[in-house]
What does this fold into?
Amino acid sequence: MSSQASKSAVIPLHPAREPLWRDVLGDVLRRERLAQKRTLKDVADAGRISMPYLSEVERGRKEASSEVLAAAAQALGLSLAELLVLVHKELIRLSSRTYTHVQPARAHAAQQGEVRLAA
It folds into this structure.
């Protein structure tokens, strides 16, 4: 591998691991609940979710089913899609702090004048 090719590899800025879905999801749920100044019990009751289970989800200790996520989102006045968009945005934000911009390999090859033929 040439030194030029190695420059396009993913390079962690620090040895941090990628954020886990359940951690980010829990943080978003908690942030939305607190922004509404609501208690864990209030949201759990509104979503018909056990309070200890919702607490575990918020802390990233449990992987919630789509049914539980939809119930929690609805209890917070969100659709499941809106909740997932919020989580997606947070994942992007966290990931951008972990990795440098990566140039795709095919773009790098095209810049070098390389031609690749598929059989």
Remarks:
- Residues 1-7, 106-110 have pLDDT under 50 and may be disordered.
- The chain is about 60% helix and 0% strand.
- The helical segments are 3-6, 21-35, 40-47, 51-58, 66-75, 80-98, 105-111.
- The CA atoms of residues 33 and 76 lie 7 Å apart.
